[in-house]
Design a protein that fits this description.
6-stranded antiparallel sheet; Penicillin V Acylase, Chain A; single chain; alpha+beta; 8-stranded mixed sheet
């Protein structure tokens, strides 16, 4: 567990270029180190040369510019402030496009509001613990658009978080076909935070020429929703026999389940899905924030549990729950554990 229990908080405001410059100035060290590590990992694990990395980043830029000029403008502000070539900032956005393998695990859930608490979207984020030192809680206040707070690695255009319009989002890897060139996943997520309805959120994703699949768990003013996003479509899941939705790392929509047979099981996805459903069902009469924390600390099948710990599994054994997050958009706050939730306290961050 890191020595500090809170992530550093940064707030930026203004035009896209101004926000990027402010972020680069505030998190120059984190952005520079993240760029260096991202390229080193690609070189070490996938034998991607610096030239190849630059070429792919530059090939994706026209797709990104057409899709969201504001996001490109913001990242250009970051690059200027940290004094790095722009392609290195773009590389952070596309580093998961170099391989068909998913780049993180995760267990997520979304619950509607009750008389005791507001609506919630939450997850454990299972990934490389080396990313902790680049992670910040970033508040953006763009001119003419909803303010948003994200739990993110410094230099990414977007990540897990919520906007002031009541849209909250958590992320899971999804097994489905990908392609190397297209609109980066983080760009579509940033556009989603400008939405106020589920339909708007779906449209924000659909209009992109997407490069990779992803799962996006949402809480919205209309209730819980889950988007299984492939490069060809967006499938919307709503609660069925329960009032909530849960997701791990396999497809649930009937039209996409065939992909589960084509891609390898990701760190015990099916057992984690069954377990989180079991834990929520045990509190079906009233699931509190504390109940959710308890569920996200669960160690059944440890170390390959909902609260994941490093183990000897080939390829992804070094992954663990880097952070756990519970988002309440209506309250404009996030509860975040910096490290596994069994060992780190949940700290509150307020927009």
């Amino acid at each position: 567990m890191p020595e500090a229990t809170r992530y550093r908080e940064i707030e930026v405001v203004g035009t896209p270029r101004e926000m990027g410059q402010q972020l680069g100035e505030a998190a120059c060290e984190e952005v520079r180190a993240f760029c260096e590590v991202a390229l080193e990992r690609l070189q070490e694990t996938l034998q991607v040369s610096s030239d190849h990395a630059q070429t792919l980043a530059e090939q994706c830029l026209p797709f990104a510019k057409e899709y969201s000029p504001d996001s490109v403008e913001e990242l250009q502000g970051v690059a200027e402030a940290v004094d790095l070539p722009f392609w290195k900032i773009m590389l952070l956005q596309i580093r998961n496009q170099f391989t068909a393998d998913p780049d993180s695990g995760c267990t997520s859930l979304s619950l509607p509001a009750t008389s005791q608490r507001s609506a919630i979207v939450a997850q454990n984020w299972d990934n490389d613990p080396a990313l902790d030192r680049f992670t910040v809680v970033l508040t953006r206040r763009p001119i003419g658009k909803p303010a948003l707070m994200t739990l993110t690695q410094a230099g990414l255009i977007s990540y897990v978080g919520f906007n002031e319009a009541g849209i909250g989002a958590c992320l899971n890897s999804l097994p489905a076909p990908s392609r190397p060139v297209g609109v980066p996943h983080y760009f579509t997520l940033r556009e989603l935070y400008e939405a106020t309805t589920v339909d708007d959120a779906v449209h924000a994703i659909r209009r992109a020429h997407r490069a990779i699949p992803a799962n996006i768990m949402l809480t919205t003013p209309e209730g819980p929703a889950n988007l299984e996003v492939t490069i060809d479509d967006v499938k919307v899941l709503r609660p069925d026999e329960t009032t909530w939705i849960t997701h791990t790392n396999h497809c649930l929509h009937p039209d996409l389940c065939e992909y589960n047979e084509q891609f390898p099981e990701l760190i015990g996805s099916h057992p984690r899905k069954a377990r989180i459903d079991e834990l929520l069902s045990a509190n079906a009469n009233g699931i509190s924030v504390e109940d959710i924390k308890t569920a996200l600390r669960d160690h059944q099948r440890h170390p390959r549990s909902i609260c994941r710990h490093a183990n000897d599994e080939p390829g992804v054994g070094f992954w663990q729950t880097v952070f756990s997050v519970i988002i309440e958009p209506a309250q404009k706050r996030m509860h975040v554990s910096r490290g596994t939730p069994c060992s780190a306290p949940y700290e509150i961050y307020q927009l």
